[in-house]
Amino acid sequence: MISKIIAELIYYAENHLYLLDSDKIYLTNILLHFFGANEPYEGEINKRDIENMEVPDSIVSEIVEYCLAHGDDEKEAERKADFALGIVSPLPSLVNGAFEEFKANDPTTALQFLKALGTSNYYFQKTKVERNKEWVATFEDGPNIVLSINLSKPEKNNKDIAKLLTTVSTNYPKCALCLENLGYYGDDKHAARMTIRYVPLTLAGERWYLQYSPYGYFRNHCIAFKEDHVPMKVERKTFDRLLSFVEQFPAYFMGSNSDLPIVGGSILNHEHFQGGSPVLPLFASEDKEVVFTSEKGTKVAKVDYYTNTIRISGTDKEEIMDLGEKILSAWRAYDNEELGILHESEGQKHNTVTSYAIKRGEEYQLILVLRCNITSEKYPDGVFHAHPEYHAIKKEGIGLIECAGEFVLPARLERQMKEVAESVNLSKEEYLKKYPDMSLFEDMISAMKENPSLDAATYINRACREILGNVAVFKNDEKGMKAYDAFLKEALK
Question: Which fold, 128-407+482-492?
Answer without folding.
Answer: HIT family, subunit A (3.30.428)
